[in-house]
Amino acid sequence: MERTALDLWVGAFVVTGIAALVVLALKVGNLSTYNVSDTYQLTAYFTNVGGLKPTASVRSAGVLVGRVTEIKLDVDRYEAKVSMSIDTRYKFPKDTFANIQTAGLLGENYIGLLPGGEEQMLKSGEVFKKTQSAMVLEDLIGQFIYGKPDGKSASSK
Amino acid sequence: MPIARSLRGIGSRVVNGVWRIGYATRFFLMILRYSGPSFRRFHLTVKEMFSSGVMSLIIILVAGMFVGMVLGLQGYETLKRYGSESALGSLVALSLVRELGPVLAALLFASRAGSAMTAEIGLMKATEQIAAMEMMAVNPIARVIAPRFWAGVISMPLLASLFSAMGVFGGYVVGVVLIGVDEGSFWSQMQDSVDFNHDILNGLIKSLVFGVAVTVIALFEGYDAPPTAEGVSGATTRTVVESSLAILILDFILTAFMFRGD
Predict the structure, then answer these.
(1) What are B225-228's contacts with CB under 8 Å, separation 24+?
(2) How many domains does chain B divide into?
(3) Cβ–Cβ of A57/B192 closer than 8 Å?
(4) ipTM over the 0.85 cut-off
């Protein structure tokens, strides 16, 4: 085969291969939702994060406003410390309520932000004061079977 | 002395096996050492990318499409029982991007391009073309082997990406167009569960490793083949068997490192 035709075919092959990778990254994967713009860091403490994972979404009123960047155990408080990066376009009042929610019955965990009424806004590095942990299905079933909730297994604070 | 004879048999097999592994490793290092010309004279590599990459396109695209369609059907049948048909998108995409894309593309590549590589090099050796090159002070590893190696290593991730993309399209055709799963939840659940670094990049690394393994096995078997018609046909068979096993074993090892249940 002629050299130019060969180069043409190989070039087309490489371009379609890279195009397939870009399609996978943007349409199938979540690369399009990474770092859309500048972000700032916020932290929240939860007694139980359930199935929350890094890169889980942070939503307010159902709109994606950021991503969970890191989850680790804070040994001073024995609570999970969840760091998240929030889009700088969105500011939240100081008394915003952060709770771990589930998309559907068996879906992914995400953090829902419920803004309060305070005038001052949360700045980078600050901590959500009011949080609610993941709803653990076993605890709920336990409470249902044994009547009233027994404090120890209550996962909200 | 039947015991001594069977012991000798075991011993010679072990020694032979170790010798072949050592020879193959040296062969691999030689390829790396003499791969300069495959980049300085890149048209050598481009020519091999045509015969191994472009010529494998049809089988990869058709196979990817049908694997995706089967995944769509089977996944729907199972997910329907739990009333979570909307998770079909993430099922199809995750299984393709993490496992089926790299593994099946590499298996097809091994039988489509790897066997051809072995036969070609084995015949070159049988017809003494390789010896002739050495006579002319042309290094056959630099001129013949290394371009084929790099062509395979570059082609493999591209083919695996095309396989996965076609598979997702096939799953979409069956799941959304034919069965009628909700289109919005198909894509949004897929994007929620497929992570670029964790899933797509790891799949790419897998296909790169498979590309190295398949081409090294194919080239080594060809280079090492006895210069007879039987020898070349036996080497071609061994290429397909060994590289398929290598792909599946490497896949398990890589998966164990990449997805440790975190």
Answers:
(1) B225/B118, B225/B121, B225/B122, B225/B125, B225/B126, B227/B122, B227/B125, B227/B126, B227/B128, B228/B126
(2) 1
(3) yes
(4) no
Range of the domain at B134: 34-258
Is the predicted pLDDT of residue B149 greater than 90, yes or no?
yes
Condensed to tens digits (0 to 9), the pLDDT of residues B11-53 reads 999 999 999 999 999 999 999 999 888 888 888 899 999 999 9
Q: Which pLDDT band holds residue B209 (cuts at 50, 70, 90)?
A: very high
Nearest to A55 among B97, B159, B195 (CB): B195
Residues facing A41 on adjacent strands: A85
Average pLDDT over residues B120-128: 92
Question: Is residue B150 within 8 Å of A10, Cβ to Cβ?
Answer: no
Q: For chain A, give every domain's residue range.
A: 1-33, 35-145
- The answer as to whether B10 is a domain residue is no
**Amino acid, single-letter form, for residue B217:** I
Which residues 218-257 on chain B approach chain A with CB closer than 8 angstroms? none
